[in-house]
Amino acid sequence: MLTLAVLLLCAASSVSASGGAAGPRLNNNQLYKFSYTTEVLVDRAKGSKEGSAGYRISSDVNVNLVWRDPSSKDNQLIQLAISNVRIDHATHRSEKKNVLHGSTAESVLGKTKLAALTKPFLLHLKNGKAKAFYSYWAEPATIKNLKRGLASLLQVQLNTGKVIENDVSGRCTVEYKAVKGQVTRTKILETCKTAETGFTTHSQVLGVSRKSSSVTTFTLEDGFIHSAVAEETHSLAVNARRSAAATVVSRQTFTFVGTEAGPLEAAGKDVAGVVKSIDAKLAAVGIVAEKVKSQCKGCPSLFEHWQTQQKQLEPASLSKATAPRSFLALLQSIRKASKGEILTVLKSASKTSLPQVVDAVTSSQTDASLDAMLEFLNFTDAKGLVLQERFLYACGFASHPNERMLQVLLDISKGKIGSTDIKESVVIIMGALVHKLCQKGGCNLPTVVQVKKLILDGPGSTQVESEVQMYLLALKNSLLPEAIPIFTKYAESEVGAYSTIALTALQRYNVNLMTDAVKQTVNRVYHQNRRVYEKNVRAAAADVILSSNPSYMEVKNLLLSIGHLPHEMNKYMLSKIQDILHFQMPARSRFYRYILLPFIVYYIFGSSSAFSGFMAQSADVTSTYSLDILYSGSGIMRRSNMNIYGASKGAMLHGLQVAIEAQGLESLIAATPDEGEGDLESFAGMSALLFDVQLRPVTFFKGYSDLMSKMFSMTGDPINVVKGLILLTDHSEVIQLQSGLKASAEFQAGLAIDISGGMEISLWYRESKTSVNNRGALVLTGNVTVDMDFMRAGVEVSFEMEASLDFITTVQFSNYPFLVCMQMDKTTFPFSEYLTKYESVPSGKSAVSHKSRKQLVPGSEFPLHQENSNMCKKVFDSSW
After folding, report:
1. Measured between alpha carbons, how far is 682 from 715 in angstroms, rounded to an integer?
2. 275 and 784 Cβ atoms separated by less than 8 Å
3. What CA–CA distance (Å, rounded) separates 206 from 198?
4. Residue 145 in contact with residue 740, Cβ under 8 Å?
5. Distance between CA atoms of residues 222 and 227, nearest Å
6. Does this model's pTM top 0.70?
7. In 3-state terms, what secondary structure has residue 481?
8. DSSP string for residues in 694-726
9. Distance between CA atoms of 479 and 202, rounded to whole angstroms?
10. For 584, which DSSP code?
11. 25-72 per-position pLDDT tens digit
């Protein structure tokens, strides 16, 4: 107790020695004169030789005490008056590129705004903290924000500690460090809470990261601020390509010049009374910055913009980078447009460009765009399938969907729908929206709860096979933990399609959710403990086992099964294990190798295979691919599965999955079906998963009669699975700078994509060929702009590329073992990067600088295993 008393006495004496001041104090009857400069610069992250875009506002500032609480010296009302305003470029400019050459503050700001900026304002400081900021409601928001930026700079505490403060940036956590007449204030910007919130892409791999810092250093003399130097930096970069980055830097410098005699302290009992006595129009307008509505003078209307972009959105241009670039530009215009303006564009678009307009309108994700689409589309009309599905897919790929979008789809599902395919797509896409909304913490939103109940109850509410599959695919998209028991049940279904969907869905879940009960079920399916399953079902079960952190016994039992499986499945499983050893799980390779060696002591013939490899590796992102192909014992392809993944900073994105399945085709070549597959209906189809969203499967043919009619009409031309424009990256935010200026950041990436697949069978040559063709053009643009009405400065970083990827499998089944050749080819494609910086003033003067870098990325054939290479030589060296 005595020790505590001594410590308190020491602390009290320390405070007394420092004068007991909690914050800076002004003296009565004294005018403090300061010079003040605030500047903002924008550039690419690494900077550039020609200098950053931006501007500097310089002025003189007079500060004086208006009133002090007689009972507390740290309760002060001070007045600040800005004068002698100058506006310049932040970095040196030649006369040709100097948009401010020959201008004055009045010509740039305008007489009214300059008068408002130089009108005195008041700040109530209590213990060094801003309690109230007094200015005039009638002043433009930009002017009030600049004043708030200066007022916030005077907020400082003289002792070390962490506090929560309100200033122009919002309500933020701030850390102070005080050492001998100097105080350092570090604002933890990620804690700042403001009214202006943006949005970003749900996928971390496709998203944008921001690193920010804000440090102010104060020196104090005679109890008041002698100087304050603040620097704030915000760097934004695309996660998948961090060189596509931009930075905004804001600096403030407040320097003491001298003092002179000033006005006497006003009399009054409280702050409110004193303020009213000075000027009744002064009001406490809040220290936190207010929103500024940017006005675009002379900007084209949406319809005018559409007229300049429509040629680039015709189908013939979709493989070129001009298509996604026009898509992104149109999307920005749509986000500012009304429902009526959007409908005008939809109604005026040509039949061929209309699907691309639907992509852009839906991807804009505004209330007006959603209302326009609902009025424009007629879901009772089966003839509108293409536009309806493009709308639904754009909803599924939405970067930041809200509850209303989900409610719209729910309402559509309850109404009359002319096409069965569209009904299925509506439900499947609702599952994807549930997943995205749950990721953002919206799992308990009323509409999300309704849809969750609908799709969770769905599989058990119908006996129609297509409807059960529809609900299972919706649940696969939702990734709801509550769906795991449903998938576990359907994994053991007698219907192969149900089992396949359930097992592939389980593979998408976090391994921590794979309980012992789930693992036991999957192992029963693979080992056929209760019934015989199709090969592709067992292969899917094996994938779940191997990707769910299997135990020693699980792997041992799986390996013991090899040699006792149907012939081609033996080869597939051996190839799968070898692929894991060499590529997929290097950290566990010793574990697998240890188990593998005692059991695999023989060579298994066959054509089925599994292989994984790298598509691209960089410091930012790693892209991998996998190709799995399983054949029946008669040589007909049973399942072909191509996957492309992207990984960045620990996050994973399933970019693409194209699976082609075929069954019941043995009768074509008078072959004997494999065990458990004798009664399967003839069928071939394709399923696609794109950017973590499962799409509605496409059927090539179903049933023997459909098979025979298409066999004779088959041209080998691919069937389209996905075609359109997708908004991959969508990041928008307003960065409130401590100076009172605002920076807006917009990063968008658009992808024009065309995925198609085909299957061709020649009974004459006893040869089959399956193909998956991927065509795409990608454009990313990142804009950081500081627009204060009186001057605009910004930087745009962008890149674009056009590429194609083909996966072709050729099978010759005239002899056994039949010959299989897999090819995965990437064509040579162009890659371009651009940097644009711009500055402009209301007079119309502007300066723009451009830089670009272009290169050709060489094409290649992705390497598969050596056995495949040997077979390809035999296939293509064949004389017939």
Report:
1. 19
2. no
3. 16
4. yes
5. 12
6. yes
7. helix
8. EPPPEEEEESHHHHHHHHHH---PPEEEEEEEE
9. 15
10. I
11. 899 999 999 999 999 999 988 776 567 899 999 999 999 999 999 888
